[in-house]
Specification:
Among the domains are: 1-34, no CATH class; 73-324, Aspartate Aminotransferase, domain 2. It is built from 13 helices and 18 strands. The protein has helices at 7-18, 73-84, 94-106, 119-134, 188-198, 221-234, 253-261, 289-292, 311-324, 329-350, 376-379, 384-396, 417-436, and strands at residues 40-44, 47-50, 55-58, 112-116, 138-142, 155-156, 166-167, 180-183, 202-207, 210-211, 217-218, 237-242, 269-272, 283-287, 356-360, 363-367, 399-400, 409-410. The structure holds pyridoxal-5'-phosphate.
C-alpha cells in the first residue's frame, strides 16, 4: 500500500492538525515503536479492523476492559436497553446500587464503594481519602507503577530516600510531589528504610499488585506481606490499585491471588477501573465502612462527578461482571493466556532467542530476557530495536500488541485456540529473524 492509498496515514495526518500528536492518549501515537497508528473502524470478538480494512487479532482490548471480547451480545443488549431509558440524569439510580452490591460481593475487602468515571479519578480520590482519613500527607509509590495522571502521582525517584520525588511532567510544581516518596518495586530494603524514616507521616502506600504498566511484574509475596505489615504497624493505609488487575486476573481480583499465599490478606483501599466498565467510562474506589465514612457527603473529604455512576456505563459494567462469573470463565481465560505464553516461549527457545513471560488470568506479559524482571530499571534494559522489530513484525502479520514494551497484554473470552496458534506462528517467524540477527 502506498502512502497515497493508506487510510491510516491519511487519517493520522488529518488528526495531527486538530488533536495534539493526533491522539487523545499518548501511547496510542506509536511514538515508542515508530510508524503509523491504526485507526480502528470496528471491532468484533477478538478482532478489530483498521481504516484500510485490515483485520488484527487484538491483545490490547482497549487496554484491558474488553475481557469478553468486542460486542458481546449480552453487553450490547444491556447498553442498548439503557440508552433508550436516557443517557444521564445526575440523580441516583437503582443500577448504581446493583453494581456497587455486585462489586462488594466479589471483592469482600470493601464494605462500600464510590463510582467515578476514570481510573485516574479513582486513584486520585483514593489518595485524598487516605490523607483525609489519616490526617497525614506523605505517600509511597513505586517506580514503574502507573496510577493515572493526577499531579501528585506524576513523579520519579529523587536522588535519595530522605528526599522526595521529582515531577515527570512539565506543569507539575515540585511542591505538589514533595510528599510523594518513590521506591523501587520489590525492594524490601528500601521499603524498610522508608518506613523507618517516614512511618509516622505516611498516609498511604499505593501499589499495582501485579504491575501492568511496566509490562508484567508481580509484587513478590514477601514484598506484599511486608507492605501490609508495615502499613498496619505505622497506621498508613495500603492502597491496591487494581484498575488493571481488578476482575481481570481473577474474579476476586489480584488481592484474592495474594490471599492464596497470605491467608486473610486484604488492602485497606481498592481502586478499580477498566473491566468494571466493560469498555464504558467507569471506575471505582472502595474500602471498609469506617474509611469510606470520611467521604462527602458523610465526611469531610470532598469528591464528586457529574457523570459518576452513569446509567449506560453501569449497565455495561453490570452485564460484563455477570458474564465473568459464569462457571469456569477464569479457568478458560487463564488456560489461553498460558497457551500463548508457553507457545511463544517454546518458539523462541527453538530459535535461540532469549525470551520469558508470565500471566495471571486474562493478563500477560513477555520479555526479551532469560529471566522475569523484578523492577522497572530491569524492564527498561530491554533492547528497544529488537522489541520494535517484534512489534512491527506482529502488526504486519495481523497481530496487535501494545505499541510499547512497558505495557501488559490482554486475553479475552473471544480469543480462540486458532487465534493463539496464528499468533505463535507469527512470533516464531519473527524469532527466526531475531535469532539470526
Ligand atoms: C489504566 C490505569 C490507571 C488509569 O486509568 P484511566 O482510566 O486511564 O484514567 C490507573 N492505574 C492503573 C493500574 C491503570 O492500569
Amino acid at each position: 500500500m502506498t502512502p497515497n492509498t493508506d487510510r491510516n496515514i491519511a487519517l493520522f495526518e488529518r488528526a495531527k492538525l486538530v488533536i495534539p500528536g493526533g491522539v487523545n492518549s499518548p501511547v496510542r501515537a506509536f511514538k515508542a515503536v515508530g510508524g503509523t497508528p491504526r485507526f480502528v473502524t470496528r471491532a468484533e470478538g477478538a478482532y478489530f479492523w483498521d481504516a484500510n480494512g485490515q483485520r488484527y487479532i487484538d491483545y490490547i482490548g482497549s487496554w484491558g476492559p474488553m475481557i469478553l471480547g468486542h460486542g458481546h451480545p449480552a453487553v450490547v443488549k444491556a447498553v442498548q436497553d439503557a440508552v433508550l431509558e436516557g443517557f444521564s440524569y445526575g440523580a441516583p439510580t437503582e443500577r448504581e446500587v446493583e453494581l456497587a452490591e455486585e462489586i462488594l460481593r466479589l471483592v469482600p475487602s470493601m464494605d462500600m464503594v464510590r463510582l467515578v468515571s476514570s481510573g485516574t479519578e479513582a486513584a486520585m480520590s483514593a489518595i485524598r481519602l487516605a490523607r483525609g482519613a489519616t490526617g497525614r500527607s506523605k505517600l509511597i509509590k513505586f517506580e514503574g507503577c502507573y496510577h493515572g495522571h493526577a499531579d501528585a502521582l506524576l513523579v520519579k525517584a529523587g536522588s535519595g530516600l530522605a528526599t522526595f520525588g521529582n515531577p515527570t511532567s512539565a506543569g507539575v510544581p515540585a511542591e505538589v510531589v514533595q510528599h510523594t516518596l518513590v521506591l523501587e518495586f520489590n525492594n524490601l530494603e528500601q521499603l524498610e528504610e522508608a518506613f523507618a524514616l517516614h512511618g509516622p507521616e505516611l498516609a498511604c502506600l499505593m501499589m499495582e499488585p501485579i504491575a501492568g504498566n511496566m509490562n508484567f511484574v508481580r509484587a513478590s509475596v514477601p514484598f506484599v506481606k511486608r507492605c501490609r505489615e508495615l502499613c498496619s504497624q505505622h497506621g498508613a493505609l495500603l492502597i491496591f490499585d487494581e484498575v488493571m488487575t481488578g476482575f481481570r486476573v481473577a474474579l476476586g481480583s489480584a488481592q484474592s491471588v495474594y490471599a492464596r499465599d497470605l491467608p486473610g490478606f486484604e488492602p485497606d483501599i481498592t481502586v478499580m477501573g477498566k473491566v468494571i466498565g466493560g469498555g464504558m467510562p467507569l471506575a471505582a474506589f472502595g474500602a471498609r465502612r469506617h474509611i469510606m465514612n470520611f467521604l462527602a457527603p458523610l465526611g469531610a473529604v470532598y469528591q464528586a462527578g457529574t457523570l459518576s455512576g452513569n446509567p449506560v456505563a453501569t449497565a455495561c459494567g453490570l452485564a460484563t461482571l455477570r458474564e465473568i462469573q459464569k462457571p469456569g470463565f477464569f479457568d478458560e481465560l487463564s488456560r489461553k493466556s498460558r497457551l500463548l505464553i508457553d507457545g511463544l516461549t517454546q518458539a523462541a527457545k527453538t530459535e535461540g532467542v532469549a525470551f520469558c513471560g508470565d500471566s495471571e488470568g486474562g493478563m500477560f506479559g513477555f520479555f526479551l530476557f532469560d529471566q522475569l524482571p523484578q523492577n522497572y530499571a530491569k524492564v527498561m534494559t530491554t533492547d528497544n530495536a529488537r522489541f520494535n522489530q517484534l512489534f512491527h513484525g506482529l502488526l504486519d502479520r495481523g497481530v496487535y500488541i501494545a505499541p510499547a514494551l512497558y505495557e501488559a497484554g490482554f486475553m479475552s473470552a473471544a480469543h480462540t485456540d486458532a487465534d493463539i496458534a496464528t499468533t505463535v506462528a507469527a512470533g516464531h517467524a519473527l524469532f527466526k529473524q531475531l535469532g539470526q540477527a
